[in-house]
Amino acid sequence: MADLGQMNRLTVLRVLDIGAILDGNKLGDILLPARQMPDTLREGSELDVFVYLDSEDQPIATTAQPKVMVGQCAYLKVVDVNPVGAFMDWGLPKDLLLPYAEQAKKLQPGMHKVVYVYVDRASSRITASARLDKHLHEENRHFVPGQAVDVLFCGHSDLGYKGVINNTHLGLLHHSDVMQPVRIGQRTTAYIKSIHPSGKINLALHLPNKKQLGELAEQILADLEANGGESLLTDRSSPEDIKRKWQVSKGSYKKALGALYKNRKIIILPDRIQLNDSD
Prior knowledge:
The protein has helices at 210-226, 239-246, 250-262, and strands spanning 7-15, 19-23, 29-33, 46-53, 59-62, 73-82, 85-89, 96-99, 112-119, 126-129, 148-156, 160-165, 169-174, 187-195, 201-204, 230-231, 266-268, 273-275.
């Protein structure tokens, strides 16, 4: 059975001058235009195609793979705007509609936006939405801390960068955990850092392992030894100051200090840390 907005393996029913007629089951016969046909295509052949709607809202097939499919998110460019909405380049001859009702703010040609793609129930058309919170979960359903996930950064706030997780959820990368440049539209592997009691998902670009914490602890000791045995950078210092000095999150710095304190290497005072010379 053919699914609209997805890649499908369909059977060739007939080969005509205009193209091949494919068995779309509930979607009916689907045309694969002649320019898309492989030379070896014959009746009874099976072919992987993407199924969408043409300008007359009839199912049509293509061997090209679009930039995004139904149920996915992507960072797309606006190529046109008219009274209906914005039209986005998703790699196919017919542009993808982003209706005004699905825009958080009006877009202009040349702009880029992260959108979610779905089949609109009222029109049965493949449609884009920039209102990601309408289609994606903002509370955790099945993720666990430390889990690797695919993230597409889709926006930012005063707290940090918003990210689409595995095309199903929304999470937040706090500014204190940004250890490298991040841009909207960037897709990368990230990690579930923690789950807030409310269910909100916090992200991290890197999860420190024990070896990394050990290396950081050694660096902190070397820095103390090189600077008279003291540092004003404590577990109470701001995330910004810690990041500026060590390029790690405050959480990672506190864990390294904790490891040093547990091993009696340092003394932690309210306003500074010191080497422990008592051993």
